[in-house]
Design goal:
It contains eight helices and five strands. By secondary structure, it is α/β, with parallel strands linked by helices. It has a five-stranded mixed β-sheet. A hairpin with an 8-residue loop joins β2 and β3.
């Protein structure tokens, strides 16, 4: 229990949406509503496709917004007017199409697959709602490396916190033994403390 509390607190303090972070469906839907209200898409069918996703909470749970969708198994790339990028593309594994209808049928038939969405629109780095739902791409090598670094840091913090907890507990027990004039307990606890210090 103590380990879980410490690890949860460490993760909570890291800030940016990490792998495995759960972004509420309500936040994703709120962002998409705002996005569609503010921007005109190069392909009108894309608005229909995004609205279809918004109307299905089960699908929205599997939607992930990324700034780069490279290497993901299934991705939608959608652009707004005034941006010099492809209007729309749908990629699944190594197959790419610009046909919105094919993307719709694939999503409709495969409800349990994760959907990674890469949006291109003006001033997206300043859009607070977009940044709030943006996630790391778990398939990029640099993301995997960062995850490994993060897990390593978490393990160090966790180990040190547990060690400190154990030291404090033994010190408290030693003080109690002294107050109770319990020489046997004092000697046993002192030996336990020395062993912990020597092996840490």
């Amino acid at each position: 229990m103590y380990k879980r509390i410490l690890f949860g607190a460490f993760i909570k303090g890291k800030g940016r949406k990490q792998l495995g972070s759960i972004i509420p469906v309500m936040d994703k839907k709120s962002f998409l509503r705002s996005f569609l209200k503010r921007h005109q898409l190069k392909r009108r069918e894309c608005a229909w496709l995004l609205n279809y996703l918004m109307n299905d909470d089960g699908l929205m749970e599997r939607v992930h917004f990324l700034d780069r969708s490279d290497e993901t198994p299934k991705a939608l790339i959608i652009s707004t007017q005034g941006i010099d990028t492809v209007p729309f593309s749908f990629r699944k594994q190594h197959h790419v199409t610009t046909d919105c209808e094919k993307a719709f049928h694939d999503i409709r038939l495969n409800h349990t697959e994760e959907i990674y969405i890469e949006l291109h629109f003006k001033d997206q780095e300043l859009h607070a709602q977009y940044l709030a739902v943006l996630e790391d791409n778990p398939y990029l090598p640099e993301t995997k490396e960062r995850k490994q670094r993060f897990e390593s840091e978490a393990n160090v913090v966790l180990s040190e916190s547990i060690r400190q907890f154990q030291l404090n507990k033994i010190n408290d027990e030693i003080n109690q033994a002294l107050d109770a004039h319990d020489k046997e307990a004092f000697l046993a606890l002192t030996e336990k403390l020395n062993h912990l210090l020597k092996n840490s």
